[in-house]
Amino acid sequence: MAKEKDKKSSYGAEQISVLEGLEPVRRRPGMYIGTTGPDGLHHLVWEIFDNSRDEAMGGFCDTIEVVMLPDNQIRIADNGRGVPVDIHKKTKVSALETVMTTLHAGGKFGGEGYKVSSGLHGVGASVVNALSIYCRAEVHRDGGKYAQEYSRGKKKSAVKKIGVSKLHGTIIVFEPDKEIFGDIKFDWGTIANHLRQQAYLVKGLRISIIDARGQEALLPLGSKASKYEDVFYFRELGLELPSVTYYFEGGLVSLVKYHNQFQKPIQENIFYVEKELDGVGVEIALQYVDDIVDRITPFANNIHTKEGGTHITGFKTALTRTLNTYCKKNEMMKESEGGFTGDDVLEGLTAVISVKLREIQFEGQTKAKLGSMEAQGAVATVFGDAFSAFLEENPDDAKSIINKSILALKARKAAKAAKDSILRKGALEGMTLPGKLADCQSKSAEESELFLVEGDSAGGSAKQGRDRRTQAILPLRGKILNVERARIDKMLASKEVRALVIAMGTSIGDTFDISKMRYHKIIIATDADVDGSHIRTLLLTLFYRYFREVIDAGYIYIAQPPLYKIKRGKEIHYAYNDEEKLKIVGKSSDVVEIQEAESPEPAEGEGESELETKNSNLKPTKFHIQRFKGLGEMNPEELWETTMDPNNRLLKKVNIEDAEEANKVFDILMGSEVPPRKSFIQSNAKLAEIDI
Questions:
Q1: Average pLDDT of the chain to the nearest whole number
Q2: Which domains are assigned to the chain?
C-alpha cells in the first residue's frame, strides 16, 4: 500500500506535458492531415494551395503556379495581396511569422480577411511548416520583397526585407520531413487532377502546374528554391518543362460536360443556378445521361466533400420533391405507380453541387463531410425554386427526365421482385450457399478469405491446396455478365453473379449490409492471359458499381501468381516477372552465358524448357524453367506455396485513389459507346505488355 501511495503522490504538475508552438503537429501529424502516407503528403500541397485559392475566391488573385522541384520540394506562388508583414499586435512579431508558426492563426477567423475560405481551423500553413524539414515564405507587397525561412516549424531568423518589388503575391516553398513521411514521392497525376477540379470551381482562375524534378541542368547555375527571383519565375523562364495550365470560364457547367464527355445526354440543356440565400452561396449544375448510375460531386468552400453532408441532403430532398410535384401536376404517371424515391431520380444524373459559407463546419480536419445545417435549407430552397422553373421553361428536357425516372421506378420494382424470388431470405443469411462454393470452416469474417478462381481446373487445385479453416473457393465458369449497364434483376439472372452475391452474404441494392460480409478478403485469382484480365475487369466492374463499400473497406484483393517456376538441382525458385527470372538465372557472378537449348526436354509438365549456363571453372548447370499460363497448370502444392500461403503470397489491394477517374475508365472500357473505347485503346496501347 505504501508503494501505491508513493506512485499517486508523485503525480504532480511536473508530470503534465505542455507542447509548445507546433510540437503537437509533429507529435500527432495524423490529427491534422489524416495520415502520413501518400494522401497526407499531398494534403500538404492542398493546404498551401487552398490559401492561394481563397485569395482568388475573394477576387484578389487570378493566377496560381504550382511547381514540383528537385529534392522533394514544392513551390506554390500566387499574385494575391501577399501575407501581411507588419507587426501583429498580439504576438509582437511579423504577421507572416505568426501565420507560419502559430496554430489557429490566419485571415479566416473573423474580421474581413476572407468572407469565404476552405480553412476550418486555420492550421494550413503552420502545419505544413511543422512537417517540413525546410520551408520558405516570400511575400511581394507594398513595393517590397520579404522572406523568412524555417525548419520543422521553427524560424531560422526574423522576417527580412530582401529587396524591392513591383509585384504582389505570396510564394511558399516546402520540403516534407522524411522523419514524418518516410518515402516522399509526389504524384503528378494526383496533383493535376485535384488542381483541374479547383480550376472548374473558381471561374477565371488560371492554375499552372510545372514539373521541374530531375531538371537541375535546365535551371540557372546555382539556383535553389531560395534564389528564385520572381513570383512566376518558372513560367517566365520559358524552359521546356512538363507543364499544364487549367482555365475554365464555364465553371460548373464545364465540369459537368467533362464528366459526361463519354456519355449520351438525354437532356439537351444543362441546368445551372448560382444564388446566395441567408449568407450561403449555392451553385449547382446538372445534366441527365443515358446511364443507370449517378455521378454527384459535392463541394463546400471548394473542398471536395466526398462523404457528402448537409448540402447533399438538401439537394436530394429538393430534387425528389420537385420531380414528384412536376410529374403529378402534368399527370405523367399513374397513381398506382406511387411516387419517385430518391434512388429513382438519381439514376443517370450528373451533378456538381458547390456551397460557400462564411462560418463553415466540417466533420473532422480532413473535411470529407459538411456539417453546417444552414447549407441544407439554402440548397433545398435555391435549387428547388430554380429547378422547378427550369422544368417549366424546358418541357422537352422535363419530359426526358421524368421518363428516365419512371423507367428507374419500374426497374426498381422489377429488381425487388427478382431479388425476392431469386435470393430467398435464408440464402442471403448464409443458410443456403451455392453448391459450387467450397466454404471455409471459420465463421469469423475477419480471418476468412474467398478466392474467386477461373474455371473448374483452377478451382480443383485451389480446393486441394487451400487452408480449409480460413480459405473458401468459388470457381467461376466463363466470363461473368458485364454489369456496367445492367440493373439488378438482369444481374441476378446470371448464375455466376448470383452465386457470388449469396457467398458474400451482404445482399445487394437497397438491402445491402456490409456488416453481414462473410469474408474480409475477397481475392480475385484469374489467369495471366487476355481472358483472365477480362474476367478480372468484369469482376472489378461488378464490385465498383454495386459493392463500392466493399472496396472502400479494403476487402478486395488481386492475387499475383508467379509467371515462372525455376529449378536447378534441388533448388526451386518462383519468378513473378521477367526481371525476377533474369535475376535468378542470369545475374549471378559465375554465369558467363545463358542459352536456350535447341531441343528442350521438359522436366516437369508442358511448357518447360532448359537453359544452360557455362562457366570456365564449373560444370554446365541446367535451369528448368516452367512458364505458368494459368492457375490450373499448378498442382495444389505449387498453388498453395505461391498464391495462397499468407506467408509467401503477393496480393494487391484494390483502392479507388480517384473515384472520378476510375468512373471515367469504367465508362470507357465497359460502356456501350465504341468510339471512346477505341480512342482509349489507341492512346494507351504503348503501355500494354504483349505476351507472345
A1: 80
A2: 23-246 (3.30.565.10), 252-419 (3.30.230.10), 425-560+652-656 (3.40.50.670), 569-625 (no CATH), 660-692 (no CATH)
